[in-house]
Amino acid sequence: MSDFINGFWPWYVGAISLVSILACALLLWIAGKAKVQSHSGAADDNTTGHVWDENLRELNNPLPRWWMWLFILTVIFALAYLAIFPGLGSYQGAAKWSTQSEHKDDMAKMQAQLAPLYAEFSAKSVEDLARDPRALAVGERQFMNTCAQCHGSDGRGSKSYPNLTNANAAWLGERGAAHIVQTVSNGRTGMMPPMAAALPGPTDITDVAHYVLSLSGSPFNEVKAFNGKQKFAVCAACHGLDGKGNKAIGAPNLTDDYWLHGWGEAAIVNIIKNGKNNVMPAQAPKLSADQIHVVAAYVLSMGGLPSVAAKPAAK
Amino acid sequence: MPPDSPAASPAARVIPIVQVPPSSAGDGGGDSGEVASLYKADKKIYARSVSGLFSRWRWSMVWITQLVFYGLPWLSINDRQAMLIDLASRRFYIFNLVLYPQDLIYLTGLLVISALSLFLFTAVAGRLWCGYACPQTVYTEIFMWVERKIEGDRAARMRLDNSPMSVAKLGRKGAKHAVWIAIGLWTGFTFVGYVTPIRDLAQEVQTLSMGPWEWFWIFFYGFATYGNAGWMREQVCKYMCPYARFQSAMFDRDTLIVTYDAERGEGRGVRPRSDTPAQYQAKGLGDCIDCGLCVQVCPTGIDIRNGLQYECISCSACIDVCDTVMDKMHYPRGLIRYSTPNGMRLKLSAAAMVRRVLRPRVLIYTTVLLTITGALLGSLVMRTPFKVDVVRDRGALARIVGQGQIENVYRLQIMNATEKPQQYLLSVNVNGMPGARLVTETSVQVDAAASRWVAVRVQAPAGASPGSHPMTFLIEGANGQGVLAEKSAFLVPR
Prior knowledge:
heterodimer; A: mainly alpha; Cytochrome Bc1 Complex, Chain D, domain 2; two-stranded antiparallel sheet; 13 helices; 8% strand; disordered C terminus; B: alpha+beta; Immunoglobulin-like; 5-stranded antiparallel β-sheet; 4-stranded antiparallel β-sheet
């Protein structure tokens, strides 16, 4: 046990436990030996002769003697308990039981119980699993435990946390099972360098921002957008001349209406100026391959992909 | 009775328990008193069988309580056990009611009602519960009946216990314990049957394939029944039961208790049956013939003629037996009878004692009891047969979608407390934000007696004022099940 800050306390706690138990035993022994005056003679009223407050007399109603063995049994039980289980300071107990080992055993038991189910799930493809309500129920619980913190209970994410139900958003239009498994297992890094140096003019960045807004049909300033179009060349290296992005290097499509890092001039200016380094952590260390298989099926089923959405009975 | 001499001296007021030297233990008795231990050897009580009016009342309570206890788990309703505490899925079925752990308040109400009923009954008529309805009394009654059938009545049992061990004695004792253990195990089985479906449990018992906890609880309650009703008996009432100790606080001078009419009975003594009242009264005798039957029938081994004692569980066995003796002697019944201390002292008629029932203590107990019972029944009748918990997503406070609309995500747990699949209609009402609406499915189906989590999104138009806005989810059960309003908050980022 590492929960004591110095070596004195285990002894202190252990001593208090033992002294209390021994004091109980001593009390039982004394009570067993104790004798009281019983006025069972002429008065025959079974009082002990003790009187308080003028007339409050103490009766002696003796307990059956065998009850004392029950009390002694509790003392023996307490000592046996302390010998077997942890309780005496930092002594581990003869049974070497601990809450951690119990938790570990329970987990192992649970995993053994679930093994056949996961074996069954793993034998199926992610796409098939996405139509199996049992797998989806398991997947949903895993999603709520590991994914919902960032992506939301409905998987629609929020600013900088991709919307998993929108194929264009999260998966850059590439919403395959393999892609999901890969992303969940190994994580993903979305990096856009700061472009302030490449757009040095005082209005360069706002101009480009308005051009970007124009690409998706959002409200924009025509003059600024016109100026920005020329300067967009520095962006085109990744996002393409038409702004439709590049799946291979993870450059998002700027012409759709999905704005992972925020919509509007201010948000776009901020990203162009400062860039963005967005990280999804790898889940492989936390989830087993079997679990990732199931959670990927759940993510796939969340909608947005025609091949699954078109087929009923998924959920 | 002369006052105890030590009480007279002031020094005697505070006397610690003193060790008395063992040498003085030998003098035994006398006015100086004797030395006693705080413990004593247990003395077995051989209660004599009794029949009569109150005995019949007790037996009818035995039948009623045990038919309910043993029979209830076998009743079926809606294709399930009528009364089942399903701990694994946390549903409590009581006939047509489906309760969730959230309904614990009803259990609290039930316990408060039980406590107040005990107070009320005790204030009016003493230890009614102890004498007629307490499981300790009821099972002891059953076990004593078995004992009587196998070993005979009091005298035969005492003879048997004093006789040396023999095949016949072993056979009788063995048979008695076998029947006791069988009743105990059946009780344990029934008890577990309230928690595990009893028909499945019966199958498991036949193949001995119960789970470890089912084994444990069947044997635990079996052993408790066997031990308490077979061996412990009056010791439970005298040394263990807290209720026996605190109900003296509910007693007053108008509480009905089992009393011996000392004025009529004393002095006790044997007399020829032919004596007329005038003849035996001339000898200084009262109506008590000192037959000792009231002591022999007493399950706690007391003599009721010594007055009200804490051991008395008001079982009225002594009333029944004394009445049969009075009948034989052709004396009027009721030398031992239900009466109140005031009734005895002031010689009140039965009607006068009944009038004294209407005293403040009783009226207050009654009022509180009726109020709480009414409130509990009212809330049960009017309760909405579903429940909703709202859990706001905490990872992200809010999200901005499309062109500036603000979305908050919530998870609603909808619990269906009926045994049919139900449809629920959802809507939201955000304070001061008429444009806010639910953008997910507004109709949710939940299976019978199931609970379901649904993720819902609430959207407010762009430009909503930043901050936290109180809001209400309105959940309407289809088919007029009523509407629940659950509070939450809608957050708009700055």
